[in-house]
Amino acid sequence: MLKEGIVASPGIAIAKAFVYEKVELEVKEVKVEDPEAEVARVKEALDKSKAQILAIKDKAARDLGAEEAEIFEAHAMVLEDPEFVDSITAEIKNNSINAEAAVKTVTDRFFQIFDAMDDPYFSARAADIRDVGTRVLNNVMGVETVDISALDEDTIIIAEDLAPSDTAQMDKARVKGFATNIGSRTSHTAIMARSLEIPAVLGLGDITSCVKNGDTVIVDGLKGVAVINPDEAELADYKKQQADYQAYMKELGELKGLKAETKDGRVVELVGNIGSPADVDGVHKNGGNGVGLYRTEFLYMDSDEMPDEEKQFQAYKAVIESFKGEPVIIRTLDIGGDKKLPYLPLEEEMNPFLGFRAIRLCFREKDLFKTQLKAILRASAFGNALIMFPMISGVSEVRQAKAILAECMQELDAAGIAYDKDIKIGVMIEIPSAAVTSDIIAKEVDFFSIGTNDLCQYTLAVDRMNQEVSYLYNPLHPAILRLVKTVIEASHSHEGKFTGMCGEMAGDPLATLILLGLGLDEFSMSASSIPQVKKIIRSVSYEDAKAIADAALHLETGEEVKAMVQEKIAELGLKIV
Ligand code: PEP
Ligand code: MG
What atom of ligand 1 comes closest to residue 450's alpha carbon? Predict the structure, then answer.
């Protein structure tokens, strides 16, 4: 039987299934004579839960690294949160009810409050609360959970969904793949699977009711399907595909130390997009030679208060130092649109993506902006930092941002604080007006970085978050290709200036040949895409790539462009995963 889901982590896994079912706890509310005894039961369960969480945290720190273990710090904090604990006690005492009913009521209430907030940061908090609440409930009720920390054979975990504490406890040597009923590409399970490099397919609907323990399951994380009890022919076919994929990955791995150089000697930069210092390892591991986009807003979003200059300085410095002279492009705060800060209330807007976002917000919140600029400048003394401004619509904003940067430099000079006085300044080209006037903007900056995620949404009038219109979201649309060409040419008409790209298009293997041929100088992408893009670049000559780009510019639709590129990729004997 074959079931279709969502590609969450690439690769092919074949193993016996383990259906990881969590017992649905049935909680009945009953009146009690002795509320104090119930409060004591809760206290005991909280202590036990805390000890369990700390043990999982230690295991996660050993198996997955300090960053991944941090989530359990957040879990332990839920248990210490007086709001949470006192609400349970109050529930018991005020209503004379049993401990389990009080824990469930309070967990549900907290979960709903956070879940309703419609913000990725708070949704993650909601998931933490549910995870911790279930643990406390299990402990109050004396329910033992299934142990997946020591498996005796290779296993595919089949589950409704996997909580962070489940993935952290797993026996990494034995778990070969995940297949779950729910989840998306950006859900916690998907992120964990990618960082563990375990193939995963999520959103399979009812996989838990289609599979029994011991069934053979294939998780195809390339096509996003799960095959249950394959026949001999399917199994043989998948074993071959698995071997081919592993060989291809090994081949890509061998490119790590090599340049992204075409057959006739054009070298381009392949660099990573990062959201925090923790992402740096992935860039090094995949052979990236720097950072083309450091999305600093995550530093603000992961904090309960505005990060001060020192905290920012430390984060930027850590990244810059780890690249030892390779370029690190730090983008100033891009908040607004779909990204909010809990401690910076903003007015509700009719069209947040066309509204008070990024540089527009920084101009109004000038102190906040200057704090960040000074932190970046101070960090620039420790390596090769570049500054990039987001959401630029025209040259006036560039001039305004540069004037504020100059003020910051003067203040640092007056205080005798070191920074790179020749720091390069660039802008994101993600608004069509900036692309069209890139010849004017080029005079004011050292580089451009094309943000195709927004450039596509604004040029094609397609909300990048709206599934209903996602079929129109096509970076290979002739309008986008023409804008990319315009921007690259604008920078190249000035000696020493360059154009990079940091939108998802830069890591899309179907776009590589065209971007290369259009003369793009720097490709910045999720670290895991780097090896494949490098492989494509090393397989072609710049002359041929230019001819392919030229042919693409003469086509009339994105679909035609895609078909043409697919043909060229096949002719070059390349495959795409
Ligand atoms: C972009 O718009 O392409 C981009 C890289 O920025 P973000 O995805 O952070 O908006
Ligand atoms: Mg953008």
Answer: 3
Residue tagged active-site, from 75, 188, 210, 477: 188
In whole angstroms, give the CA distance from residue 486 to residue 481.
Answer: 9
pLDDT greater than 70 at residue 385: yes
Catalytic entry in 210, 408, 456, 502: 502
Indicate the angle between helix axes 99-115 and 120-141, nearest 10 degrees.
170
Euclidean distance between the first and the last CA atom of the chain, given in angstroms as a whole number: 24
Relative orientation angle of helices 542-553 and 478-492, to the nearest 10 degrees = 130
554 is catalytic: no
State which of 79-83, 127-131, 218-222 shows the largest mean pLDDT.
218-222
Give the predicted TM-score (pTM) of the model.
0.73
| Separation of alpha carbons 515 and 521, rounded Å | 9
**What's the pLDDT score for residue 57?**
82
d(CA 385, CA 496): 17
Ligand 1 pocket, CB under 6 A: 293, 295, 334, 430, 451-454, 502-503
pLDDT number for residue 186: 59
For residue 386, give the DSSP letter.
E
Q: What's the CA-to-centroid distance between 342 and ligand 2, angstroms?
A: 20
Residue from 186, 296, 430 to probe ligand 1 pocket by mutation (most atoms less than 8 Å from CB): 430
422 three-state secondary structure: coil
Better-scored residue on pLDDT, 285 or 546: 546
Give the bridge partners for 4, in sequence order: 225
Q: Does residue 502 carry a catalytic annotation?
A: yes
Contact call for residues 536 and 248 (beta carbons, < 8 A): no
Share of the chain above pLDDT 90, in %: 68
Pick the atom of ligand 1 nearest to 502's CA.
Answer: 5
The contacts of residue 117 (CB under 8 Å, 6+ apart) are 123, 126
